Amino acid sequence: MLDILNRFIVALRASGLPVSMTEHLDAAEAIAHIDLGNREHLRSALRATLVKDESHFDAFELAFEVFFAVRSAERALEELEGPGEGGAGTEDEGPEGAMGASQNGEGEGGGGEPPMSEEELSHLVDQVLRQDDKSRQNMVARESVDRYSGIEPGRPVGGTYYLFKTLRALELEQRGERLLEEERERRGGGKFSNLEERLTKDEIGARIDGLKKAIEAEIRRRLVEDRGSEALAKSVRKPLPEDVDVMHATRDELVDLEHALRPLSRKLAVRLARKRRHKRKGSLDFRQTVRHSLSTGGVPIEPKFKNPRPAKPEIMVIADVSGSVASFARFTLHLVYAIAEQFSKVRAFVFVDGIDEVTHLFDAADDPMDAVARINSEANVVYVDGHSDYGHALKSFHEQWAKDITPRTSVLILGDARSNYHASESWVVADLQHRARHVYWLNPEPYNYWGSGDSIVREYGEYCDRVVEVRTLRQLEQFVGELA
Fold first, then answer.
1. Which residues make Cβ contacts (< 8 Å) with residue 248, sequence separation at least 6?
2. Where are the beta strands (DSSP E) in 249-304?
3. DSSP letter for each residue of 134-147
4. What percentage of the chain reaches a pLDDT higher than 90?
5. What is this structure's pTM?
6. What is the DSSP-derived secondary structure letter of residue 37?
7. CB-based contact 159:181 (threshold 8 Å)
8. I need a labelling partner for 115 at 20 to 30 A (CA). Which of 54, 157, 245, 364 fits?
9. For residue 77, what pLDDT is reported?
10. To the nearest whole number, what is the mean pLDDT of the chain?
11. Beta strand extents in 285-419 (DSSP E only)
């Protein structure tokens, strides 16, 4: 069992979860006090000892479902013993055998029974959704995967394609609409209030979600049977919120990113405040050193230093808020303003082809996310047609606000530098570098894409102190921590 636990923790670490040695030992101690035959007890024990952050639960759940997937005892023993060591043993050996034998004692194909016709399966799906029949949910999942998924043994995929094919064939959303219409007719149309309709819709949606999860679990079980848990884990691994590529995040991932950003900004603010308090000593205080050396016969054994007076930097953020880059700009503005106390002054500007200052939105908001939400409706960022024009935006910034930049100012420019083949006006960045303490360019695109197509980031990069690839919250946190 300890060998299986070790391999599971390796899988968690490969997913990005920070599992320490102490937590590893805690998990080993916890599983010694539970029934390993109870899959839910094992899940709870491992989650309680190995996961510290609520935002990491989804990654843990996926890793657990794959690694401890329901499978045959023979397959579990093969993975436990390694190749070539035979399959001697019984179904009770090892936790994967205890949990792994098929829950209903049937293999694929329903235990030798003749397969259902398409009409019979469709009728059964409707019954499961109409009656919320969880006892037959797994049977529907098995039959649906058999008929529609087209699983190919040995194919190195994570199963998303098979899930899509099965769900498309079942047309669950259309079935949900039909069930809702049936419920309206049953209750007599006008007697069906808005609240009742919403509650009914939510209930039907929950039943559909339950069936989807059962189908996904069945596909995952078969893929584990075919390829083994560790091989499958590599293809279905889910990144943590802080490791998600912001520019290509789905709607659900963006919601997770927003939830992860709040505790991240608080943690970063505390860390930076502690770092500033314990900053290294100031310059050598020669007078105090000589005076103190009188007690040691004039030998300066213990040098004395002046009290440090670390200056807080001023920050100007110039952010492209067009297209997919907008998500990256919003998260960066949020993070910078969440730790604004670590800077002497923060000013924010947003642009598309025109540029506008939005500092007042953040100054008036208690929560930076509220200010970020107002940018789209209140910021005047369109000059001609609303397509990115870095050259015009930077030139306008120089005309209106370049005089405010001092040797204490650090300028952050956020964007992919895709300017739709307009003039770059790179002299503006060169002048900003001359005026400012530092000029940094944060690019959310992969490094390999820089300079391709209409990207002119390398032209601007000649006049920047650093051009940094910042695609995830983790990279953003690291950069902002260094900046402060």
1. 324
2. none
3. GGGHHHHHHHHIII
4. 12
5. 0.58
6. T
7. no
8. 157
9. 44
10. 78
11. 314-320, 345-351, 355-357, 409-414
Q: Provide the CB-side half-sphere exposure for 74 (13 A, CA).
A: 5
Q: How far apart are CA 349 and CA 205, in angstroms?
A: 42
The two counts, helices (H) then strands (E), for the chain are 21, 6
Cβ neighbours of residue 327 closer than 8 Å, sequence gap 6 or more? 246, 247, 249, 254
Are 472 and 245 in contact by the 8 Å Cβ rule? The answer is yes
151 pLDDT exceeds 70? yes
SS3 419: coil
Handedness of CA 247, 479, 315, 484 (dihedral sign): positive
What letter represents residue 190's amino acid?
A: G
Cβ neighbours for 323, distance < 8 A, ≥ 6 positions apart? 388
Paired tokens of 60: 């843990």
Q: Tell me the C-alpha to C-alpha distance, in Å, between residue 69 and each of 102, 135, 158.
A: 10, 20, 14
Phi, psi at 213, each rounded to 5°: -65, -35
Q: Bridge partners of 414?
A: 319, 442
How do residues 4-58 score in pLDDT, each as one tens digit? 788 788 878 877 778 888 888 888 888 888 888 788 888 888 989 888 877 787 7
Query: 396 pLDDT band (50/70/90 cuts)?
Result: very high
Question: Percentage helix, strand, coil, to 5, in the chain?
Answer: 60, 10, 35
**Could you tell me which of 332, 321, 304, 329 has the C-alpha nearest to residue 480?**
332
Q: Are 90 and 13 in contact (CB under 8 A)?
A: no
Task: Enter the tokens of residue 477.
Answer: 């946190």
What is the per-residue burial (b if ≥16 Cβ within 10 Å, else e) of 321-339?
Answer: bbeebbbbbbbbbbbbbbb
Query: What is the token pair recorded at 16?
Result: 């990005």
Cα(395)–Cα(402) distance, integer angstroms: 10
- Residue pLDDT, tens place only, 276-305: 665 556 677 788 888 888 888 888 888 887
Which position has the higher pLDDT, 106 or 58? 58
Sheet holding 409-414, edge to edge: 355-357, 345-351, 314-320, 409-414, 438-443, 466-469
76: confidence class by pLDDT, cuts 50, 70, 90: very low
pLDDT at position 159 is 65
Distance CA 468, CA 413 (A): 10
Q: Which of 422, 453, 428, 452 is nearest to 441 (CA)?
A: 428
Contact assessment for residue 440 and residue 466, using Cβ atoms and an 8 Å cutoff: yes
